[in-house]
Amino acid sequence: MAPTEPALIDPFARPINYLRVSVTDRCDLRCVYCMAEDMTFLPKADILSLEELDRLCSAFVDLGVRKLRLTGGEPLVRKNIMWLIRRLGRHLDTGALDELTLTSNGTQLARYADELADAGVRRINVSLDTLDPEKFKAITRWGDLDQVLNGIAAARKAGLAIKINTVALRGVNDDEIDRLINWCGECEFDLTFIEVMPMGEIGEQRLDQYLPLSMVRSNLSERWTLTESDHSTGGPARYFDLAETGQRLGFITPLTHNFCESCNRVRLTCTGTLFMCLGQDDAADLRAPLRASDDDALLTAAIHEAIGRKPKGHDFVIDRRHNAPAVGRHMSVTGG
Length: 336
Ligand code: SAM
Ligand code: SF4
Known about the structure:
Strand 11 (273-275) and strand 12 (283-285) form a beta hairpin. Helix content is 30%, strand content 17%. The chain is built from 12 helices and 12 strands. It starts with 17 loop residues before the first strand and ends with a helix. A 12-stranded mixed β-sheet has the order 7-8-9-6-5-4-3-2-1-10-11-12. By secondary structure, the chain is of the alpha/beta class. It has one domain (18-330): Aldolase class I (TIM Barrel, Alpha-Beta Barrel). The mean pLDDT is 89. The protein has helices at residues 50-62, 81-88, 90-94, 109-118, 133-140, 145-157, 177-187, 206-209, 213-220, 287-292, 297-307, 331-334, and strands spanning 18-22, 67-71, 99-104, 123-127, 161-167, 190-194, 226-228, 237-242, 248-252, 265-268, 273-275, 283-285. The longest helix is centred in the first third of the chain and has 13 residues, at 50-62. Bound molecules: S-adenosylmethionine and iron/sulfur cluster. S-adenosylmethionine binds at residues 27, 33-34, 71-72, 74, 103-105, 127, 165, 167, 194, 196-197, 199, 331-332, 335-336. The site of iron/sulfur cluster has 12 residues, from loops.
């Protein structure tokens, strides 16, 4: 189906065709780089209903968005989330949407994998920073690695393609990089390493966690055959083909390599706030125009106005002089 409205093009001529939606700020884990232990979550009254999220996402699809990624917090802990996923699946059926996908911590996948596949989800990203149960518990503050591995196994059995996302953490999982690559190779999962980004107060020193991926990559190339791949999601990752495993390896390097020139995405929170850039504070409230009328005219105008002020890029930096968050909100608000 052709979009009924003019496509979304930002001031730097970048087409915006990818929407990431944080459907909840809540999570059943507390990863140390993502959240503080004693997080205060949003009051339920501030959160958009699933019907409202459907309407908002569908307005973006009408404006030419071809890819939707649900994230969080943990998207699969939101009550009745399958209702929303099935509803959004109608845009896959009409051909308006190319992909409906999720980023998940995997804890609930054993329960949902079959339903996700049935609703039209073909690929998911699962975040996993270690294969060591003790380290997993320490990183997530209380998580059970087996629960996640069972979830991943269920997703694989349901036929979902899986990409593992691993945040590179100095002194924590830097000794596990080869093990993760081998494991992903055996399971036929793609793997992407992510640099820690300075988002939200976490009560821990980011500088201590930060492991530049430029170092990881040059170190890896001593043992693995990495060939630069032309694969692109229009996003921040640079991809390589790994000859030894046949899998793809990605690096998301917001700090050592700025990726903004090809940015095709915007991010919506569960309160209807649209962030035009992950690394900037400017945002647009879409909840007010959404609730002001049953007609989408106000909402569509607000979306166009917001895209019209998408900034050129972020200014993330982590060093001794900049050891405070670049943006005050946590990653769980916009979902990464
Ligand atoms: N709960 C889901 C999960 O963990 O996949 C979805 C939300 S989580 C915020 C999305 C991704 O952001 C995860 O891969 C997580 O590791 C990553 N992330 C969270 N905080 C981060 C930070 N400060 N820097 C870099 N990546 C971060
Ligand atoms: Fe939860 Fe994902 Fe943040 Fe970990 S990274 S605390 S799983 S939202």
